Amino acid sequence: MINDITLGYLILVLPFLTFAINGLFLGNKNAKAAAGLAVTFNGLAFISAALLAFHYFTSVVAPQKVVLFDHSFIPFAGELVARIGMLIDPLSVMMLVVVTFISFMVNIYSIGYMREDRAMGRFFALLSLFSFSMLGLVVATNLFQMFIFWELVGVSSYLLIGFWYHKPSAVSASKQAFILTRFADSFFLLGIVLVSYVVGSFDFTTINSLTMFPFRNETIDMGICVMSKSSALVLGSILIFTGGWGKSAMFPMHIWLPNAMEGPTPVSSIIHSATMVVAGVYLVARLFPFFAVCGDSLTLIMWVGAFTMVFAAVIACTQKDIKRILAYSTLSQLGYMMFALGACKIGQAIITTGWTASTFHIFTHAFFKCSLFLIAGSLIHQVHTNDLDAMGGLRKKMPLTYACALISILAISGIPPFSGFFSKDEIILAAFQGQHYAVFALALLTSGLTTFYMFRLFFLAFHGEPRHEGVKAGHVHEDFFMTLPVVILAIPALLSGILGKGLFEHFFTPGKLHVPTMLKVAHAEWIPFVAIGVAVLALLIAWFLYASPKAKIQRALDDTNRCGIYKIIYHKFYFDEMYYTVVRQFIFGGVARVSRAFNDYVIEGLLAFSIWFIHKLGDLVRTAQAGYLPFYLGTLIVGVLIWRFFGQLPL
User: Fold this and answer.
1) Are 271 and 156 in contact (CB under 8 A)?
2) Mean pLDDT across the chain, nearest whole number?
3) Strands (DSSP E) along 225-293, which ranges?
4) CA distances from 36 to 41, 116, 466 (A)
5) Over the stretch 284-341, which tens digit does the pLDDT of each residue have?
6) Rounded alpha-carbon distances, angstroms, from residue 244 to 146, 230, 277, 372
7) DSSP codes joined into one string, 541-610
8) 504: which of 243, 558, 584, 610 lies 20 to 30 Å off by Cα?
């Protein structure tokens, strides 16, 4: 019987071995063998994670934390030590299962999707590096370890988004993602430094067990000002959240995520469902007791998430690129998860409904969003375009894909008994119980918008007459390797809500909180009915506009006869243009030009002057050492005279 420590090592080592073997040996020599190795090892990692989850949840230990292994890594000043370990609790175990399962499915799918790509072996190596990085992040026992794997996730995502480096758009998107997330990560690092300096530890258990009372009368010199240590911890919490703000692409650091669609579709699927973008939500959930004692940090988190949720949903309603619709859908769903964590705050008290709902939505969202991206990839693979203009009439040509798409879209729309209903209902309830009525209304509105744009995509892609010559000619078919993962993912998209609800309610709590906690909150029984009603109404509107006998598809797809507001929304409120203006005009044209001029004329000018001066001194020395005896005697006499008159020395 394999023990849990061995399983923990296998979960981390197997993806890393896949990366090393494929990257160094198999990738360039035998792409099929590289694909087989990746599928096998990632499948074994999933089995290990599933066994570990089964052992944990059936033991008497759950829901307590367990550290499977813990090694000293870097000793800092005093007792501050960075360690590398593996933390097991309900949150990390759930993430292990989700990440390994999604990675396994995406690797199977990639066999079909990347079959014709000459760099297929390199792709499987990078995909495994990405999985390893995310797995190391979710089992981290402390902030230092999390930051290491946090950066590895960023680097591997950069390599995957820019995988097709011959495309300028892919290179630009990868650099944009890397720069924006690094910008946010710099604040994350500052927050880690500040909090660890005040607390004297990187450890999650120590940081989450803090109370503010011991720090209110102590001060810390920040260099530019002196503040109380309690205020420094609040500042540190905001800085740490900023790292998650960028990684989860919250507004206004959202623009890198839709542009990341330039990478292969399997990359989009794994980034958007269970790995990179969920890392920010996971960070807040992991440090929730710390955020709870840090003043209004949770309020900030709630409003950032709520605004992103509505903002992204509105944009998704106008897009025609199928992957961009799903990208903005991901942004909106991340907003749901994030605001649910912030909505736990009622005045000075905390309710934990939102924390449980947010982590539950991470779980359910992973399955149906991964499925939707893989379905989008299958459609693109057949019609060779991302544009809904060229789709339609695919229902009969791709029946399994059609059925799985319907299941996943019903799940994300929050229609019972599909998985998204259970987690999204809990999030909306958390906003109401937290007395955040404006956010509650926005959540209901976004629920309707989500149903509308997802069924708009569904009807335009699968229903109606074919609008692509290949579909009309019957050249469309379902690839086995690309359809199998979609069918498998449809099962948890349907059942994970029903089967997981009891597990999450029983085991998933944020741990011991050092603030007042409200245990009894009135349960509004009417909320699920209202949420379902809003979703059904939005579905009927989408059907009337895009699938009913009276629907005018060509007019619906024609974006030239739209009003000004529609065009503004269609162009994503021109945030891309503003970003490029700032980058090109201000940073490249202003800051970079000034910096280059300073480097050219000041730094290099001083260096050139130093070199010239040294050369002249060398010339002088060479002249003095010419072997001319009268010159030596004259120099000796002049030196003695200077010594006599200026040094005040006797002859």
Assistant:
1) no
2) 89
3) 226-228
4) 9, 16, 36
5) 999 999 999 987 899 999 999 999 999 999 999 999 999 999 999 999 999 999 999 9
6) 12, 22, 9, 24
7) HHHHHHTSTT--HHHHH--TT--HHHHHHHTGGGHHHHHHHIIIIIIIIIIHHHHHHHIIIIIHHHHHHH
8) 243
Query: In which element (H, E) is residue 88 found?
Result: strand 81-88
pLDDT reported for residue 593: 83
Compute the CA torsion angle 96, 98, 102, 104 (nearest 10 deg): 40
- Half-sphere exposure of 311 toward its Cβ, with a 13 Å CA cutoff? 21
CB 487 within 8 A of CB 346: no
DSSP letter at 84 equals: E
**Total Cβ atoms within 10 A of residue 224:** 6
Reported as a single tens digit per residue, the pLDDT across 20-69 is 999 998 888 898 999 999 999 999 999 999 999 999 999 998 889 999 99
Q: Please tell me the distance from the alpha carbon of residue 430 to that of residue 357, in angstroms, as a whole number.
A: 8
Q: Which residues of 443-465 are buried (b: 16+ CB within 10 A; e: fewer)?
A: bbbbbbbbbbbbbbbbbbbbbbe
Q: How far apart are CA 104 and CA 126, in angstroms?
A: 14
Listed by start position, the domains of the chain span 296-556, 575-646
Q: Which residue has the tokens 């394999």?
A: 2
Round to whole Å and give the CA distance between 584 and 121. Answer: 36
Please give the C-alpha separations between residue 220 and each of 67, 206, 214, 226, 233, in angstroms, as whole numbers.
33, 20, 13, 6, 11
Give the burial class of 431: count Cβ atoms within 10 A of its Cβ; 0-12 exposed, 13-18 middle, 19 or more buried.
buried
Decide the pairing of beta strands 219-221 and 226-228. antiparallel
Amino acid letter for position 446: T
Residue 474 pLDDT class (50, 70, 90 cuts):
low
- Within 8 A by CB and 6+ apart from 137, the residues are 146, 149, 150, 152, 153, 279, 282
Report the C-alpha gap between 207 and 163 in whole angstroms. 38
> Is 443:528 a contact under the CB 8 Å cutoff?
no
Mutual orientation of helices 90-113 and 265-273 as an angle, nearest 10°? 170
Q: Please report, as a single letter, which amino acid is at residue 26.
A: L
Would you say the C-alpha torsion 48, 54, 56, 60 has a positive or negative sign? negative
CA–CA distances in Å: residue 29 to residues 21, 33, 110, 128, 160? 11, 9, 18, 18, 20
User: pTM to 2 decimals?
Assistant: 0.90
- Report the sign of the C-alpha dihedral through residues 459, 463, 465, 468, in that order: positive
DSSP 22: I
Residues contacting residue 567 through CB under 8 Å, at least 6 positions apart: 559
Beta bridge partners of 71: 84
What confidence score (pLDDT) does residue 389 get? 83
Does residue 204 have a pLDDT over 90? yes
